[in-house]
Structures are given as structure tokens and as C-alpha cells.
Amino acid sequence: MVASIVSACSGAKEANNPGTAAEGESKGGENAKTEAPVNKTPVELVFYSTSGDFNTEGFMNMFGNKIKEKFPHVTPKFIEYGPDTRLDKLVTAGETIDIMYYSSGQTNFLLEYGFAYDISELIKKYGYDLSRMEPTTVEIQRMLANGGIYGLPVFNNTVTLFYNKDIFDKFGVGYPKDGMTWDDLYELTKQVARSDGTQAYQGFTLSLSHNMLINQLSIPYTDQNNKVTFNTDGFKRLFTLWTRFYQIPNNTVDEKTVSYGVQVNAFDKEKRIAMFLGLAALGPARFKDLFNWDVASYPELPEKPGIGPQPYPTYFYITKTSKHKDQAFEVIAYLTTDEFQRHLARNGLFPALKSRDAMQEFGAEFAYLKNKNINAFLPKQFAPPALPSEFQSIGASNLTAAFNAVLLNQKDINTALREAEEKANKDIEAAIAAKSAK
User: Which residues are bridge partners to 205 per DSSP?
Assistant: First the structure.
């Protein structure tokens, strides 16, 4: 797996008796009855994603085999992403795709190629209960589909604070605690950004792209008119909040070390960074047992106690071109049942349910996740989701360049954001013009 995976309360009792849905919602759950039987004729359902987070074996172990066990008439087929299976090539070749899965930050692929399909009627037809899901994951879909819903959230992700326990032990400093504020984290960074003989230790680093994408102020990259507004109080506050860490002695970066790739390698492989604020999925997917790590909850803003970052869910979408929409819906609905969500949790993926019961089994299949601070992976409460942007990648690349320019003392925050806004808007205009010319 890579970073792309690299989230009325439904407890265990409710899994067996879904109860009555709220007015205007559908009824559903593990044992929810459909209003019409699904066609049991043998069918092949083709799954695809450009995320590259699973090969065929991994997909079958996590999803396919369980689907076959539950639905013997369904044969899942997974198309691995690669140079010969880019989405544009599959479209040109007329390849049939029934179900696509993408994180909330990758939905542009679904929209760009015309695969989006509103499943609202299927939700109504089969009595599916959306109230069981983490509300913010549903809200993201409502915004994407202008009140409709394109896909069901199957697993979740967000950003959390990882730390190297050995570095804290070396300097006799107490570990990060849940509920810290950004100022608490800043003071803690000062204590572990230091040297031991010839070895220098950086105290803290963060993944700018992920922290900004799901920031706890819920600021979107672009507005409803596809305009970037970086030169505003919200972006300035986040830049000020984060760039100050890199002004702490021994926590500075240079042109060789400023990039995300170098920083994350320095954290887990070189073991010379004490704390890293990155995607929660990196723990079970990448860090594994590489070093002695644990997690603490996302730092809080004083005026937003208990509020973490936004969620970063992955959705399974039935495509507009699928000829087996009813069978496909039955399958993706199963992936959100309590039973299957517990399976995901046991195998290191974060459930997308409103209830956190499945998290009690998180990582049960992996020894290296035992004794971790499991409750800190997901915040007590997610920040409201920001408006998803079709031009997120353009905004992210320009904002990262601005952030790095500040870290390297090449520009001040106001100049960096103003220039990034100007360039991003020109890049978006060019992208819109190129799209119209096709």
C-alpha cells in the first residue's frame, strides 16, 4: 500500500438490528433487506484504481476473496495500475470497468472521464442506511455530486502525529501526549531538535500537501469558481503556524532536505527526525516494524478543542458504463457492513463507519501494531470537509513551492502566497482552456 490509503451511532447490537433510519434516510445495515432481489446470474465485476495501492494479490486478499465468499455468483477482476493500464488507455481500448475506487483527493479521475454515476436511486431501492457512515464522508459526496452521491466510503484515512520513541528516550524527554495544542508541540520540538555527538536530530516535520488538503480550518484549495485564494487570512495562519517549526535551531532544512520524500525517509529509514505529521495509513502500510514508533492525536487549535483534521476517505464508485449496477451496489454495500469493516480494521485500514467499535480490533493481524495508541490514529471529531477541487493538484503544487520557499528563507509568507496564488490561477485557466479544446 502507498500513501493514497496512504474516515445514529451503530454499535455491535445495531449491526444485527439496524433499526429505523431517520426521516428522509434509507434503512439498512448488515442484515438489511433489499426491496428487490439482486440477479444471481454469474457475473464478472471489474475493479480499477489509479492509486496503485494494491497489486492483484493484495486486492484479492483485502477485498476480492471476501466478495467471492459472500457472493459466489460474483467473480471480482482487478486491473492493476501501470504504464499499460493508464485510465486513458483503458478508455481508448473500450475496457469495461464496473467499480472504481479513489480517495477523496483523486475523484477528478472519476469526473474527468465521465464515469460518475449518482447511486441515490440504488440507495433508495435497496434500503441502504447512510446514517451508519462517518457523516463527513457522506458530506464530501454530497458536495461532489451536487446533493447526490457517487460512491460509498469503504475505508478512511487522515493525518496523525507519529513519533520515534527511541529519540525521546535518548534525550530523556516525555513522549507526545493526546490533546496537545500546536504551541505544546512547538515547545516539545525544541526539546528534541538537538545533537548527540556528531548526529543531529530534527525535532519535527510534516507533509505539507496532506496537512493542507485536509486542514482543520476546512479551507479549500479553490472556491466554487475554480479560483485560488491563497493570499487570505486562513492560508496565512496555517503557513505561520507550520513554518515556525523550521526556524527552530536544528530543525531547519535546506534545498537537499526540504522535499517530502527526503523528510519521510529521514524519519523512518534514517531515524533522525523525532516527530512526523503525516497520513495515518503510513503507520501500518510503511512504518510497520522499521523502528520503535507510536502515535499521538493531531495537534489542536485553542478555539477548536477536540477537532482534528478532515477525513481522507476512499470511496468505491459504480461507473456510469457498468452493465451490472445492481450487483455492483450489493457488493459495495457489503464492503461497508460491520462485518467487513472489522475485517479492514484487523488488517490495518481505518473503518469508515460512524461507530468506532471496529477500531477496537485495529491491526489485530499484525504484531507490530499491538500496544500502539490506536485511539490517536483518528481524531475524536473530524473537521468539516472543505469543498473538493477539480484542480487540487495545481493548487497543491503551487502551495508546496510557496511553503518550501519560506522554509528556505527565499520569500516571506505574504510574498510566497501572493505569487503562488497568481501562478496557480494562471495554471488553472490554462487547464480549463486545454480541456475545452479537446
Answer: 276
d(CA 227, CA 406): 23
Handedness of CA 269, 275, 277, 282 (dihedral sign): positive
Return the sign of the alpha-carbon dihedral for residues 432, 221, 278, 266: positive
Interior angle at CA 260, CA 256 and CA 266, nearest 5: 70
pTM of the entire predicted model:
0.89
Which cell numbers in the block locate residue 47? 475493479
Rounded to a whole number of angstroms, the distance between the first and last alpha carbons of the chain is 34
> Model confidence over 89-141: pLDDT tens digits?
999 999 999 999 999 888 777 888 889 999 999 999 999 999 999 999 999 99
Q: What pLDDT digit, counting tens, does each position of 320-337 carry?
A: 999 999 999 999 999 999
